[in-house]
Structure formats: C-alpha cells, structure tokens
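In the laboratory, one determines a bound structure by crystallizing the protein with its ligand and collecting diffraction data. In a computational setting the workflow is compressed into a single prediction: the sequence and the ligand go in, and a structural description comes out. We illustrate the idea with pyridoxal-5'-phosphate.
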Amino acid sequence: MQFRDLKTQYQALKADIDKAMIEVATNCNFINGQQVKDLEKELAEYVGVKHCVTCANGTDALSLAMMAWGIGEGDAVFVPDFTFFSSGEIVAHAGATPVFVDVDKDTFNIDTASLEAEIEKVIAEGKLTPKVIVAVDLFGLPADFAAVRAVADKYGLKVLEDGAQGFGGQIGDKMACSFGDISTTSFFPAKPLGCYGDGGAVFTDDDEIAALLESIRVHGKGKEKYDNVRIGLNSRLDTIQAAILSIKLKAFAEYEMEDINKAADKYTEKLQGLVKTPVVPEGYTSSWAQYTIQLADKETRDGLQAALKAQGIPSMIYYPKPMHTQEAFAGQQFDEAVFTNTNELVNTVLALPMHPYLTDEDTDTVVAAIKAYLA
Ligand SMILES: *Cc1c(COP(=O)(O)O)cnc(C)c1O
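The predicted complex, in structure-token form:
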C-alpha cells in the first residue's frame, strides 16, 4: 500500500502528461513559457483571487510574502508551534522573530486565544513590533480565518495564509489560498496538488503586492530585463512543471477532491469510537493533505505504527517535534506552558495512507489492522 499513490495518478493521466512534457522539450521554452502564464490564470480562477504568482517552491512563496511586506529585524511574526519547519524558518530567514503559538487539539490549527495572549506579551515586553500572523491550513483543513482575521484587525496585523497543505480546501464556498492578505501554496509532489519536482505559488488580490512579488521573484527586476530595482530571488516555476500542473489541476478539480473526501469519510465512519478521528468543523472542507488520527498516548501511537508497518501499511508522524524545540530556534526563550496542546499532539498523532486513489479495500485493510492492534 502507498502512503500517497503518485504512481496510480500518473498512470491515470499519463497520455496527457507525457504529451505536455514532450511539448516543452520540443519547444525548449523551459523558462517563462506560455504554460506558466496559463497556469497562473487557471490557479487564480480556481482559488478566486485576482493574482497568482508562481515560484520555485512553497518555502520561497512564504519568503516572497515576507519580502513584499518588508518584514525584517525587530518584527514579530506569529506562527503555530505545530507545523512544518518552513512556516517559522522563513520568518527567521527574513531577520524577524518567529513567536510560536499553540494550536487547537481538534483542528490542529492556530488557537486564536493563544495567539492573542502571545501578541499581548510581545506588546507588553516592548522589544518587537507585531507585524504578521502566519495561519497554516494544516493537513488540508483551512484555519479559522474569521477568528484569525478578527485578531489581525484588532492589532493591525497582516494575515499570511500558509496553504502549502491547504490547496483545495474551503470555508463555505471560499477556497483555501484566498484567506490571507497574501496566501501561498506548495506543489511539492506529495501535497494536495503536486508537480513532478519543486514548485509553489503566491496568491493575492492586491495589485501593488502582486507587482512587487513578480519583481522579487526575478532578481528584483524593474521594467527591463537587466534593470534591477531591488534585491530579490531567483524563484521561477519551470515551464515543464507548469505544463504538468495544468493537467493535474483539471483532475484535481474534476474528481480528485471529491474522491479523497470519500476516502476520508470512509475512514471516519469506520474508525468512529476506536481512535480520535480528524474534526472538520461545520461549513469547512478539507483537501486531506493528511488523514491524522490521535491515539491515547505515545506508547500506543508508536506501537500502532510498528504494528501497521509489520503488515506493510505505511504511516507517518507529522510532526514529531514542536517548532519551539527545534535546535534552529535554540537562541530564543520559550515558555513551555504556552504549548500544552502541541506538546501532546507530537506524541499522539499518526497520519494514515491518504490519496484520491485509495480504494475501499485499502481503508478496510488499514481499519482492520488498527482494530486488531487496539484489541
Ligand atoms: C510543505 C510545506 C511548506 C514548504 O513547501 P516546499 O514546497 O516544500 O518548500 C511550507 N509550509 C507547510 C505547512 C508545508 O507543509
């Protein structure tokens, strides 16, 4: 069994993907091909925002946002403690200070009570200036953006939606990657919408920010190619990746999101009462980057993972370490009392095989193995 079955997906789309890749090779328009512009239009339309600026990966997408806003030394950026390293890394990389915040135990997303408490602490200390809230759509579920926006407005902060795992999710009929002042995603192969290498995108409704992002993406270019008006990056999306993504976006919108939600519903129905299943609040839709269950304690979780492995069932621990305990942030002081939920989740979460091509037979096999272990 595959944890995320990219091979079956390729077989389903092979004729179109092969043709698209060969077309790029034939035309040799490897950089800035028409396919990149076409994809940006398609992505902006799908997400329902005015601008999409593609880039080299999801980490750069976040960095592009930091650069466009001029975030740097002396600035505080609030980041959930339970997330992939990039969400905090890009803050430190910009020279600013990541202030970690606890998450909700049901949704795995930023806890706005903890967020507000941390903002108040930073203000009271008076050393850093609060600037940005990074809200991550963890495991495919959009963060509580109504609550995040209320806090942002109260303190005059910007919202950066890290939708690396969230692409395709929804709150009501609004799509993920449309909730931030700037939103980002990643096309890393195993993400909800993945390419065949690295890729990413930034989304915004703001014309000025979009123009800035386009400049920063290509060495801070001005009006002409060898006119550089600011310090930027080299962070383009390859034409070949854009061509692949256009095809995969169609399948994603037409049936993959529906199919992965059916697989998630199957798991949730069959695992009811056995383990704590992921919570999708009323009105929310997840794109199921991960299907993450919670076990009673670390011993049970680790034991279950070993039992699944013995039966050839892959599972993953996202994430085994809270951000505030990463050695890279050892220079900062943290109060353990802030991170109650994250400190527990790192010991109890387990992500099960999840993808749009998961069969009923697969979910049955996984559920039977979990049942047998817990009995
Ligand atoms: C994967 C991921 C990123 C980074 O994306 P890359 O394309 O790998 O650089 C950032 N944030 C989160 C939450 C992610 O899961």
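The chain has a mean pLDDT of 98. Keep in mind that any predicted model is a hypothesis to be tested, not a measurement.
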